[in-house]
């Protein structure tokens, strides 16, 4: 009886040792990373906290954020604008015309607000009063080759239907935000009579 018990004990101990060895080998095999593995890895730490992914050695993380290198258009300068008053229209004692501001540059630019005007004649500047009229003031984007405009209105006749001074031959236009102006021809003939030098000016808008 004692001999059989001793034999059973030895066999059981050997079986337990063999099982422990096999389990340890399996755990080590599962924990070892694959030799060719690459890229980010993630998992759960021993304390149960999540572990964020990180690039493998030699790897990199690419950002999908959009580029913000594009700069907004700058204000239109006097030098890059072509200016003109191509025509005018009559309404009883009043005359109206559009001041065109055309972008001759190679990049878009912006205009916002009211132009400054100074009437001129053969002998120099003439009395000029600019009255800014109510209207929506917006920032107008002017692509190359495109135009913005400001409507101008003035009285060309007195009460008796006679023209009245001054009689300008030119006007110097200064775009909003600029110090220098550009001199262009004023409306010719009777239509160009500006009673008292008063011109009503409306905010710059896109197009004509």
Would you give an account of this structure?
There is one protein chain. This protein has a domain at 75-206: Immunoglobulin-like. It is built from 1 helix and 16 strands. With 208 residues, it is of the alpha+beta class. The strands form 4 sheets. Strands 4, 5, 6, 10, 12, 15 and 16 form a 7-stranded mixed sheet that branches. A 4-stranded antiparallel sheet has the order 9-8-13-14, with no helix packed on it.
CATH topology name of the domain at 75-206: Immunoglobulin-like
Structural class: alpha+beta
Low-confidence stretches: 1-44
Mean pLDDT figure: 79
Strand content: 25-35%
- Please trace the helix and strand order, writing H or E for each element: HEEEEEEEEEEEEEEEE
The total count of helices amounts to: 1
Question: CA-to-CA gap between the ends?
Answer: 118 Å
Radius of gyration: 42 Å
Main sheet attributes: strand count, strand direction, barrel closure: 7 strands, mixed
């Amino acid at each position: 009886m004692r001999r059989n018990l001793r034999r059973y004990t030895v066999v059981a101990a050997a079986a337990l040792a063999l099982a422990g060895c096999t389990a340890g080998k399996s755990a080590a095999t599962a924990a070892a990373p694959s030799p060719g593995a690459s890229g980010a890895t993630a998992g759960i730490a021993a304390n149960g906290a999540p572990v964020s992914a990180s690039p493998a050695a030699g790897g990199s993380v690419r950002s999908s954020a959009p580029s913000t290198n594009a700069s907004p258009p700058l204000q239109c300068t006097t030098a890059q604008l072509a200016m003109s008053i191509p025509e005018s229209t009559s309404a009883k004692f009043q005359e109206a015309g559009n001041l065109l501001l055309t972008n001759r540059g190679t990049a878009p630019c912006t205009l916002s607000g009211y132009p400054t005007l100074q009437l001129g004649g053969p002998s120099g500047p003439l009395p000029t009063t600019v009255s800014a009229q109510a209207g929506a003031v917006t920032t107008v984007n002017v692509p190359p080759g495109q135009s913005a405009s400001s409507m101008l209105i003035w009285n060309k006749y007195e009460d008796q239907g006679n023209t009245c001074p001054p009689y300008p031959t030119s006007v110097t236009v200064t775009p909003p935000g600029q110090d220098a102006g550009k001199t262009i021809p004023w409306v010719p003939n009777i239509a160009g009579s500006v009673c008292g030098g008063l011109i009503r000016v409306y905010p710059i808008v896109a197009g004509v």
